[in-house]
Automatic annotation (TrEMBL):
Residues 76-199, 279-402 form the Type II secretion system protein GspF domain. It is a multi-pass membrane protein. GO terms for cellular component: plasma membrane. Belongs to the GSP F family. Its main location: membrane. It holds the Pfam family T2SSF. InterPro entries: GspF/PilC (IPR003004), T2SS_GspF_dom (IPR018076), T2SS_GspF_sf (IPR042094). This is Type II secretion system protein GspF domain-containing protein. It is found in: Cell inner membrane. Keywords: Cell inner membrane, Cell membrane, Membrane, Transmembrane, Transmembrane helix. GO terms for biological process: protein secretion by the type II secretion system.
Length: 410
């Protein structure tokens, strides 16, 4: 009999996930109902018997821990908007999307949302139960669409914004691919030099009694560590990576990284323009949908990735409540927002065309980000060449200096 990986929900809200051998999906649903659970998502695996089935079950379980990509959310949003526009009932549309979604974790979430919608709960409330998949901004936009009766339009707007974010991320990754390959090859070549070339040169220096400068001694020590204690180096690298991940999950660690990003050449310009574009685009959509400016800024403060941008918007929402304009609240953050952003916001507030101004600003800075990401690899290449040249020069100088010293003593 086939093995099914399933997700089920009890009347009290308890979620149950696992695998079960059954004749078919109906038989599985009947067994779960006998245990007080309703089947919400199911995936048929391989037939039972042997290690292959066990491996398949393990893979299915591990897939539940995968994250949900931006592309998966984009396809969900776009397809849901199309189905709603075609007149399909929301719960039916969600069931269709659940079937066609390949991400196992997302499939379970969509199934749970579909079940709750079927039970009569608002769509936005069902989404709010899964903050890892649908952040505050997404939930609030859906709530606005439900209230105003224009859910299809709101979903299309969010899908357009997600598409822009996806394109920018893809361009940045593409621009960094070449430097990353060069850097990886450099590390491999450097490692081979340290374990193959340096030991032989060190033995030669020891035989001829050459006086070694500090840089050469450092290289020989590193070579011995890599050759004889490579496992300690590997443990150290793994510990460093995990330590950095743990630190970056803390508030202080995140603030430190965000502060560094806002100080690095080239990167700081990209960060300012990218966050300004997202701020203007999203705020324009929220305001145009009828969200009060204070509430819109509060929502935005929870969605921008950089801590300092988020903090500035939260503080701005507090100051606007006290009677200040948005321009007055943001004009002092000169290290975050380009002058054009604050000045145009002032014009929009004075003329009553804030939404139109924000849309134009978003278009402008998205074009700026596109141009910057296109030239990113060209900007990084000279830096990489300098780093590689410095590394090769240090290695060559460290190995050649003792030879000159010996020759001078002859």
């Amino acid at each position: 009999m086939p093995i099914f990986t399933y997700s089920a929900r009890a009347m009290d809200g308890q979620i149950k996930r696992g695998t079960q051998e059954a004749k078919d999906k109906e038989d599985l649903a009947h067994m779960l109902r006998g245990q007080g659970f309703m089947l919400t998502a199911v995936e048929e695996g391989k037939k039972g018997g042997g290690g292959l089935a066990s491996l398949n079950t393990a893979v299915e379980k591990l897939s539940l821990f995968k994250g949900i990509s931006l592309e998966a959310k984009l396809m969900f949003t776009r397809n849901l908007a199309v189905m709603i526009g075609a007149g399909l009932a929301l719960n039916r549309a969600l069931s269709v999307l659940q079937e066609q979604t390949e991400n196992k974790k997302f499939k379970v979430i969509i199934g749970d949302i579909a079940e709750n919608v079927q039970a009569g709960k608002p769509f936005s409330e069902c989404m709010a139960m899964h903050p890892a998949a649908f952040p505050d901004l997404y939930v609030n936009m859906v709530r606005i669409g439900e209230t105003a009766g224009n859910l299809e339009e709101v979903l299309n707007s969010m899908a357009d914004q997600m598409k822009k974010d996806h394109d920018i991320i893809s361009r940045v990754r593409g621009a960094l691919m070449y430097p990353a390959v060069i850097f990886t090859v450099m590390l491999i070549v450097g490692y081979l030099m340290m374990i193959l070339v340096v030991p032989k040169l060190a033995a030669t220096f020891a035989d001829i009694g050459a006086e070694l400068p500090m840089s050469t001694k450092v290289l020989i020590i590193l070579s011995n560590i890599m050759l004889n204690y490579w496992y300690l180096a590997l443990v150290g690298i793994v510990a460093l990576i995990f330590g950095m991940r743990i630190v970056l999950k803390t508030t202080q660690g995140k603030k430190g990284l965000d502060a560094l990003i806002l100080r690095l050449p080239v990167i700081k310009g990209l960060s300012r323009k990218l966050n300004s574009a997202r701020f203007c685009r999203t705020l324009g959509i929220l305001v145009d949908s009828g969200v009060p400016i204070v509430k819109a800024l509060e929502i935005l403060s929870k969605t921008l990735s950089n801590h300092y941008f988020s903090e500035s918007l939260y503080q701005a929402s507090l100051e606007i409540q006290k009677g200040k304009t948005m321009y007055e609240s943001l004009k002092n953050y000169t290290t975050l927002y380009p002058p054009l952003v604050t000045q145009m916001i002032a014009v929009g507030e004075e003329t009553g065309s804030l939404t139109k101004v924000l849309t134009k600003l978003a278009d402008f800075y998205e074009d700026e980000v596109n141009n910057l990401t296109k030239n990113l690899s060209t900007i990084i290449e000279p830096v990489m060449m300098v780093v590689i040249g410095a590394g090769v020069g240090f290695f060559a100088l460290s190995m050649i200096t003792p030879m000159y010293s010996v020759m001078n003593n002859i």
